[in-house]
Amino acid sequence: MDISRELRHSFVSILSDSGIPIEAISRSAGHVNTEVTETVYRFQPRPVLMEGAEAMDGIFPAQDAT
Question: Where are the domains of the chain?
Answer without folding.
Answer: 3-59
